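Q: Could you predict the 3D structure of DUF2730 family protein?
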Amino acid sequence: MTSTIDFSQIVVVAAGIMTLLNLGAMVWTIFTGPARKLGGRVSELEDRVSDHDKRAERHAQQLVGLSQTVNAMPGVQQMHQLEVALSDIRGDLRTINATMEGNAKIMARLEDVVTRHEQHLLDGGKR
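A: Sure. Here are the predicted structure tokens for DUF2730 family protein:
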């Protein structure tokens, strides 16, 4: 008993299987293609959000530093006290300047007296 193999039925079955596989691949691509694109876009957006979070954290740290610096600065009351103290110092310096001018005049008169004494002593008291 010899049996004959009918290749036409095998070709039809193989073509049917191939068609189903191609159809499945096409459906798979239709449903997963946009998901891949969206997945890439989502990961890109997550990276950007992460970068923005890091920048926001740096800005928050800078704001804390600036806040501490501003809090350490003198207030209006302290600046007014400093201005008053500087005015007092200016007045004291004017007083010192006037005293120094008086002392300079006294020293000039003393130098004149000392010069006359020296001249008298150098002349040997000949007058």
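Q: Anything worth pointing out?
A: The chain has two domains: 1-73, 75-127.
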